[in-house]
Design brief:
By secondary structure, this protein is mainly alpha-helical. It is 52% helix and 10% strand.
């Protein structure tokens, strides 16, 4: 109950606003969290993370969604999670989440390093 309501009143509106700002390539945006309008800077990784939650929800089988739907609707997470659709920002396409693999922080850094090491 209360934890999902906290998610619905804080993380959800911030995530959705971040996703909209990221796709629009806005540097800052305003979001209203728990009745307080605040200016935020746009962090594209947060928008990507929001999209991943949306995609994970869609990837669930219908029986799993049906079992979760009452709790998520009761807390106000659904239908708000998908209210704007899935806003895809292509900045992270082809890159993995930021895990350290072989001493490299993530695929984006590995890509930039390989690009810098190319001759010419």
């Amino acid at each position: 109950g209360w934890l999902l309501q906290l998610v619905a009143s804080t993380w959800l509106p911030l995530g959705a606003a971040t996703a909209r700002a990221s796709v629009a390539r806005e540097r800052t945006f305003t979001a209203t969290l728990r009745g307080i309008e605040t200016l935020f800077s746009t962090h594209h990784y947060r928008a990507w993370a929001f999209e991943q939650v949306q995609l994970r929800w869609q990837a669930l089988s219908e029986p799993h969604r049906a079992s979760l739907r009452p709790a998520l609707e009761g807390a106000g997470i659904l239908p708000s999670l998908l209210a704007d659709g899935i806003l895809h920002n292509a900045l992270f396409d082809g890159f993995t989440p930021p895990f350290v693999v072989d001493g490299v922080a993530d695929a984006r850094i590995r890509h930039q390093k390989a690009k810098a090491d190319r001759p010419g």
